[in-house]
Specification:
The chain contains nine helices and ten strands. The chain is α/β, with parallel strands linked by helices. The protein has two domains: 141 residues, Nucleotidyltransferase, domain 5; 169 residues, ATPase, nucleotide binding domain (Nucleotidyltransferase, domain 5, 2-Layer Sandwich), CATH 3.30.420.40. The radius of gyration is 20 Å and the shape is globular.
C-alpha cells in the first residue's frame, strides 16, 4: 500500500488530494473568485492566492483522508505546464514538505495527469478503465490535443491546436456576449435552451489532425458586430441560440478530427479529459459515437475534469511503483508537451 499526497497549483485552483494506491481518499480544492471581475485569470493574483490557500488545503486533504502527514509515502506535485508563479508556489511547498518528512518527491506533467485521471477509483466500486492503446481528446482553456496513449507514461500527441484552445474559444465567445467569467459553463447552460442550427459560423480548415480556433472566434465576433449594428438587443434576445450554435460548431470541429484519428489508428477505445470534458454537449456527442461507431467511450467524473490534485496523486502513484522520483533541484516550467 502507498499513500500519496498530490498538490496541484498550475492555474487558479489550489488543490490537494490523498490517494491510496489508485483509490481516492480525499480531494480538496480552493477556488479563486478574485479573477471574475477581470474576465480571466490574473497570474500575479493567482500566485498570491495559492500562497494563502495551500497550507489550509493540504491540511484539509489530510483530515478528510483520515491520516497524519507521517503516514505519507511520497508527495507528487504539478511541475508544469501552467502559470509559472502559480506552479512555483506548489513546487516550493512540495519540496519543503517532502524534505521535512524525509519522503520521496515526484514531479507530474499536468497534461499526463488529466489523461490518467481515468484510472482513479472509488472505495468499494469497480473501476472500468480504457485498455492500451487508447485515444484521449484533452480539451481545456489552455490545451486541445489528441493523444495516442500506449501506456501510463508512453503518450504521443498526434493532433493539437495550432493557435487557440477550445476552452479559450468558449470563454472568449462568452466574453464577446458579455457573459461572466468563466464563460464556458455558462454557454453550456444557455445552450440547453437554444437551437444549435440557428446560426452558422466559419469552420477552420486545417489539414491532418491539428485544430485551429482563432478563425472561429473572429467569425463569431464579426457576426455579432454586424448584427448589433441593426439591433442593439440582438445578443440578449438570442443568447441561448448563439450559445447553442457556437457550442455545436466547436464540438463538431473537435469530433471531426477525433473520428479521423480513430480511423487512422484503428482504435475504438476513446476518452476525453480536461475542463471542457465537463461540457454536456461534448459528453452527448461522445455517447452518440458510442452507438454510431461502436466506440468504447470513457468520460471522467465531473470532479476530475477541471484541475484537481487527485489526478496528480494518482499519476504520482504510478511513478512511485516504478521508482520515478525527482530531487530538490526540480523547478517548474510554464510550457511543455506530454
Amino acid at each position: 500500500m502507498a499513500l500519496i499526497l498530490g498538490i496541484e497549483s498550475s492555474c487558479d485552483d489550489t488543490s490537494a488530494a490523498v490517494i491510496e494506491n489508485t483509490v481516492i481518499r480525499s480531494n480538496a480544492v480552493a477556488n479563486q473568485a478574485v479573477h471574475e471581475k477581470f474576465g480571466g485569470v490574473v497570474p500575479e493574483l493567482a500566485s498570491r492566492a495559492h500562497q494563502q490557500n495551500i497550507i489550509p488545503v493540504v491540511h484539509q486533504a489530510l483530515q478528510l483522508a483520515g491520516i497524519d502527514k507521517s503516514q505519507l509515502d511520497a508527495i507528487a506535485f504539478t511541475r508544469g505546464p501552467g502559470l509559472l508563479g502559480s506552479l512555483l508556489v506548489g513546487t516550493s511547498f512540495a519540496k519543503a514538505f517532502a524534505l521535512g518528512l524525509n519522503i520521496p518527491l515526484i514531479e507530474v506533467n499536468h497534461m499526463q495527469a488529466h489523461i490518467l485521471a481515468h484510472f482513479i477509483s472509488y472505495p468499494g466500486k469497480d473501476l472500468i478503465v480504457p485498455d492500451f492503446p487508447f485515444l484521449c481528446l484533452t480539451v481545456s482553456g489552455g490545451h486541445t490535443q489528441i493523444v495516442l496513449v500506449k501506456d501510463y507514461f508512453l503518450m504521443e500527441v498526434i493532433g493539437k491546436t495550432i493557435d487557440d484552445a477550445a476552452g479559450e474559444t468558449f470563454d472568449k465567445a462568452a466574453k464577446i456576449m458579455g457573459l461572466p467569467y468563466p464563460g464556458g459553463p455558462i454557454i453550456d447552460q444557455l445552450a440547453r435552451d437554444g437551437d444549435p442550427g440557428a446560426f452558422e459560423f466559419a469552420e477552420p480548415r486545417v489539414p491532418g489532425l491539428d485544430y485551429s480556433f482563432s478563425g472561429l472566434k473572429t467569425s463569431f465576433l464579426y457576426f455579432l458586430r454586424d448584427k448589433l449594428k441593426v439591433d442593439a438587443d440582438f445578443i440578449e434576445q438570442n443568447k441561448c441560440d448563439l450559445s447553442a450554435s457556437m457550442q455545436y460548431t466547436i464540438i463538431k470541429v473537435l469530433m471531426k478530427k477525433l473520428k479521423m484519428a480513430a480511423e487512422k489508428h484503428h482504435i475504438n477505445q476513446i476518452a476525453i479529459a480536461g475542463g471542457v470534458s465537463a461540457n454536456s454537449g461534448l459528453r452527448k456527442s461522445m455517447a452518440q459515437m458510442k452507438g454510431e461507431l461502436g466506440w468504447e467511450v470513457f468520460i471522467p467524473p465531473f470532479e476530475f475534469t477541471t484541475d484537481n490534485a487527485a489526478m496528480i496523486a494518482l499519476t504520482g502513484y504510478f511513478k512511485f511503483i516504478e521508482n520515478k522520483f525527482t530531487d530538490q533541484k526540480a523547478s517548474p516550467y510554464a510550457r511543455g508537451g506530454i
